[in-house]
Design goal:
- This protein is α/β, with parallel strands linked by helices and about 250 residues long.
- The protein has a domain at about 10-135 and about 160-190 and about 240-250: 3-Layer(aba) Sandwich (Rossmann fold), CATH 3.40.50.150.
- It has helices spanning about 10-15, 20-30, 50, 65-75, 110-120, 145-155, 170-175, 195-200, 205-210, 215-230, and strands at about 35-40, 55-65, 80-85, 95-105, 120-135, 140, 180-190, 235-250.
- About 40% of the residues are buried.
Length: about 250
């Protein structure tokens, strides 16, 4: 199965057209925590989730197994360091890291191999923050975006994937060497212009799958822009993102 994140278009989209949700999540998850010395972002993609660590840690490292994503990461998060690497074999020395974040990346990882690696690289009082959020498909003030998203998904079906479901409850039941600490399901509103929302939708994996099947990228953009225009009416609107975070600590 081809990796849905491994194309140049997907990497560029993740670098420029993903909404700023990560920092808002970390503000919730790490409220009251000390500033961390070194943070590690596992499955950092194009660096957007690593950039969100600015201010939470003195230094940050992002690791990513899809090297196409890293082509943009140093520009997106210039204060961070980046390495090609996988969650199951973290290229960092033992006890070197005070905070690990994983934004949607553990859904694709071998967790039986990841958790021992996370325990190895974390300092003894370190924190592991696992979080994820779904696509923005609801307008805060209402107005039909949910229905549009259903049509979008039917028109451009999602490709098969091997992602596992994760949640605080699932993480709490795992025999991982970590204990669930703080956790929360959230709903975050992000203001978005109509053009940015179109750009964001074009980063979804179902669009990449449609392009691989032969649908022109420009045709998808044109349909999205035309069908979304009545919902935005040229103005900025708040889009809701729903997800969870779970803070875990070693037992």
């Amino acid at each position: 199965m081809s990796n849905p994140f491994g194309t140049a278009d997907m990497a560029a989209g993740y670098a420029t057209a993903r909404p700023p949700v990560h920092r808002r999540i970390l503000e919730l998850a790490l409220a009251g925590e000390r500033p961390f010395r070194l943070a590690l972002d596992v499955g950092c993609g194009a660096g957007v989730s690593t950039r969100a660590l600015d201010g939470f840690a003195e230094r940050a490292i992002g690791i990513e197994p899809v090297e196409a994503m890293l082509q943009h990461a140093r520009r997106v998060a210039p204060s961070a360091a980046f390495l090609a690497g996988a969650a199951e074999a973290i290229p960092v020395r033992t006890r070197a890291v005070d905070l690990i974040t994983a934004a949607g990346s553990l859904n694709y990882a071998d967790l039986d191999r990841f958790f021992p690696e996370a325990a190895r690289v974390l300092a003894r009082d370190g924190v592991l923050v696992v979080y994820d959020f779904g696509p923005g498909r609801t307008l805060r003030a209402g107005g039909g975006l949910d229905e549009w998203f259903e049509e979008f998904s039917a028109r451009y079906p999602s490709p098969p994937h091997e992602a596992r479901e994760l949640s605080p409850a699932i993480l709490a039941r795992m025999t991982s060497g970590f204990a669930l600490d703080r956790h929360r399901e959230f709903e975050i509103a992000i203001p978005m212009t109509p053009s940015f929302y179109v750009d964001y939708m074009l980063t979804e994996t179902n669009v990449a799958a449609a392009v691989r099947r032969g649908t022109p990228h420009d045709a998808i953009r044109s349909w999205c822009a035309a069908s979304l225009a009545p919902l935005w009416n040229g103005a900025e609107r708040e889009v809701l993102f729903r997800g969870y975070f779970a803070c875990l600590k070693t037992i």
